[in-house]
Write a structure and sequence with these properties.
Shape: globular
Distance between the termini: 9 Å
CATH class: Alpha Beta
Organism: Lactococcus fujiensis JCM 16395
Oligomer: single chain
CATH superfamily: YqgF/RNase H-like domain
InterPro entries: RNaseH-like_sf (IPR012337), YqgF (IPR005227), YqgF/RNaseH-like_dom (IPR006641), YqgF/RNaseH-like_dom_sf (IPR037027)
Order of helices and strands: EEEHEHEHH
Subcellular location: Cytoplasm
Number of helices: 4
Mean pLDDT: 87
Function: Could be a nuclease involved in processing of the 5'-end of pre-16S rRNA.
Largest sheet: 5 strands, mixed
Low-confidence stretches: none
Strand content: 15-25%
Enzyme class: hydrolase
CATH architecture: 2-Layer Sandwich
Length: 141
């Protein structure tokens, strides 16, 4: 592959960011960006810095689906965010089903002995790692 991918877990208040290695095998956490999507603050200034730093070939955005596979309001909001990322930065945006990634991230942090107040700081970027890793695993050649 020899190109990095960025993974995003987009919420109404934060966006978790993860990055792949150059071979597209593993995902690592980067950071969590504070956003206010209801008021149009999408965190694009920081995202632009990360795009310049990592030079991703593609951005993988978590798509929150209902357990039955249907897409609801949050999925629509994620697709809207992805469209704005594509329009603003000219980078291909692909989507990865993110059902249960936040719950899975919470379990990983609890199992690791991370205290509740500290879990809030890490959960979104860990969810981004899980989204990106799932995408990488399903797109191996």
């Amino acid at each position: 592959m020899f190109a990095r991918l960025l993974g995003l877990d987009v919420g109404m208040k934060t966006v978790g960011i993860a990055v792949s290695d150059l071979l597209g095998v593993t995902a690592q956490p980067v950071e969590t960006i504070k956003v206010d999507t209801e008021n149009g603050e999408l965190g694009f200034s920081r995202l632009e810095e990360l795009i310049k730093e990592y030079k991703p070939a593609k951005i993988i955005l978590g798509l929150p689906k209902h357990m039955n596979g249907d897409e609801g309001i949050r999925a629509e909001a994620s697709r809207d965010y992805g469209s704005k990322v594509n329009e603003t930065f000219g980078i291909i945006v692909d989507y990865q089903d993110e059902r249960l990634t936040t719950a899975q991230a919470e379990k990983v942090l609890i199992a690791g002995g991370v205290h509740r107040k500290d879990r809030k700081k890490s959960i979104d970027k860990l969810a981004a790692v899980l989204i990106l890793q799932s995408y990488l695993d399903s797109h191996q050649y």
